[in-house]
Amino acid sequence: MTVFLVGAGPGDPGLLTLRGAEALAMADVVVYDRLSVSALLDLAPPGAERISVAKSAGRAVMPQDDINALLVEKAKQGLTVVRLKGGDPFVFARGGEEAAALAAAGLHYEVVPGVTSAIAVPAYAGIPVTLRHSSTSFTVITGHEDPDKSDEVNWEAAAQLGGTIVILMGIGRLPKIVDRLLAGGLAPDTPAAAIRWGTRPEQHTVRSTLSAIAREQLASPSVIVVGQVAAMDLSWFESRPLFGKKVIVTRPRHQSSVLADRLRDEGADALIVPTIEIVDPLDGGAALNAAVAQASSFDWIVLTSANGAARFCERLRDGRDLAGVKIAAIGPGTAEVLADHNLVADLIP
After folding, report:
1. How far apart, in whole angstroms, are the C-alpha atoms of residue 102 and residue 336?
2. DSSP assignments along 213-229, one per residue
């Protein structure tokens, strides 16, 4: 048994690593939180147990110590466990604590790094965290520290480092953080940006200045960028033609992925909600079998869907039975099914 601590990336399912996908495919149990990507749960086997611990903004359905104990318990049962965490498991994600608990229990574990939101989210907002002529370094800081820690982030010192400051989990303390960065010497008009739900279809970017950013209507989870690069707007993600649109795909689940992926490529939030289920006829296909047996007696055969075309072709004994018969295929998808069976549609309306 192995426990995989998998970084799910910042939100876009396409940013999951190959190793992360491999781990999910092997999972008996997936333990996931709010910031992990729900669509990735489909990569786990259908029978895998899925356990939500719903960690977000300092709140959790399950305390961290209990999560650690859960991972140990499931692993000791001989199960392959995937702990799916937003971003990278070792970047402000408490993955180190989980790894330490597994090590203390003598259990085998593997860390699968993920794409951190500190870099990916600004990139999806068109903000490079470094730029050769103006920002040659960047600092990543958490705005949500352990309250029991003996010291705290020296924001005044961070302000004097130069370069870009990227703040994760900082919305709740943003006014205080801004005051301390200003006290450290940053100018009030220093560019600042906040990106909520970065890399997801609902991404929203606010561009402002350091002195004004805390007055914007911001909510978590957001990544905050402070520095000259925050003024840049190399927008590509939010400028896609269907960005901000929600589209419901009602096709059967096993046939919906191609259309859903195309919609997502254009920026849409594609929701797969199957309203159609393909089932065998109540007569076991007797009527269809009888019709196919008489195929040569028809002038035209009209196939109205890819599913119908597939059922027809499955029952066709010999293509020569269609000699002299014309075939109409409604839609290119239906025509493709015919082509897969070496049949060419005479009409594709």
Report:
1. 51
2. GGGS---SSEEEEESGG
Catalytic status, residue 189: no
CATH no. of 3-115: 3.40.1010.10
For residue 55, indicate whether it is catalytic.
yes
**pLDDT (tens digit, 9 = 90+) per residue, 42-61?**
899 999 999 999 765 555 57
Of 93, 128, 116, 112, the residue nearest 12 (C-alpha): 116
The CATH code of domain 118-231 reads 3.30.950.10
Boundaries of every domain in the chain: 3-115, 118-231, 242-277, 286-340
**How many helices and strands, by DSSP H and E, does the chain display?**
10, 14
Q: Which of 12, 28, 88, 169 is labelled catalytic?
A: 169
pLDDT by residue (tens digit) across 241-290?
999 999 999 988 878 888 999 999 999 999 889 898 888 888 888 888 88
Does residue 169 have an active-site annotation? yes
End-to-end CA distance of the chain: 55
Please pick, among 28, 55, 85, 88, the residue that the annotation labels catalytic: 55
**Which entry of 12, 33, 74, 88 is annotated as an active-site residue?**
33
Residue 243 CA: distances (Å) to CA of 8, 11, 193, 265? 22, 15, 20, 9
For 14, residues 6+ apart whose C-beta sits below 8 A from its C-beta are none
- Residue identified by tokens 């608990």 is 101
Do 210 and 189 meet the contact criterion of CB atoms below 8 Å apart?
Answer: yes
Give which of 32, 40, 34, 31 is closest to 12, Cα–Cα.
40
> What does the block give as tokens for 269?
């939030």
Q: What is the pLDDT of residue 1?
A: 82
pTM given for the model: 0.81
CA 242 to CA 202: how far, in whole Å? Answer: 11
User: Tokens 């490529």 identify what position?
Assistant: 265
d(CA 31, CA 61): 12
Environment class of 68 (CB within 10 Å of its CB; exposed 0-12, middle 13-18, buried 19+): buried
